[in-house]
């Protein structure tokens, strides 16, 4: 798989094309009426539930019930035959449930019925076992506690060179060295991780797994390949992410040997780089947006080409695991379709623009911002 920009079409309701102000945007293919659903997406590329909610959110329908613990886990009987086919050495006594919880047996069955899901379950279990073992024997905090100081003297304009050199070291030195080591010895090279890194590892594994399941010309795969990466901007703002990436890459490389044929640094960087700029928040479904819990994030490639407006004409809504994008008002053919990136419409213009600049690295010049400024 290669990371590339190409023509992308994800819906008959709109076209994705270059915007006059730069980048790409979604434009209505025809006149459309208020409340029309222009896009509906149920299958994400990758999803991460924040660790404090990991046992309180269903890993299939994403339901959350005011902190109530999910009661349904995957048990050995569910996976015994599948793991046997993969020649797994995990036994019934050892199995921990792959770190997944569900609200109902039906949700668990739906998750288990996914194509080749045993491969992902086994990877989740392997990562969980090693992470819990590390927690028991070590204080799992970042190995370098002076990351910010280390990068403080580097000018923002030079950060891209720093990033490239770090990945060059991985590609030319670390990977060839690791490839020659036996798996039992290589596992001893796993760096320490914390809960955030554990969540990122699972996110990357799910992305790679789902990418492997896509047909060569699938809409989802083509949409993902063309996603914009905000890697440089994000790491320049938060340098700790560079070391975080190195750690996550090493865990995935070491514990997922079946993925190594496609796990190049460029491929891995596009996974996290596209997440930085295109992930959608998973929020508790509640009437009052101000009181909702932020539960995690996911990447929906097909929905990632909507630009932001502080006066959006498209409303996004999550129903279970499905994201629906519907029109808030009538639109005309060739009118740009925009969403609200972070539910900030009730803030004043200065605060809105500050949030957008710090998270997505652009100065909002939508019609509302221009008029209010």
TrEMBL record:
CDD domains linked to this entry: SET_SMYD
A single cellular component GO annotation: nucleus
Keyword Plastid found: no
Top-level taxon of origin: Eukaryota
GO terms assigned for molecular function: methyltransferase activity
Record carries keyword Transferase: yes
SET domain residues: 6-342
Protein's name in the database: Potential protein lysine methyltransferase SET6
Organism: Kluyveromyces marxianus (strain DMKU3-1042 / BCC 29191 / NBRC 104275)
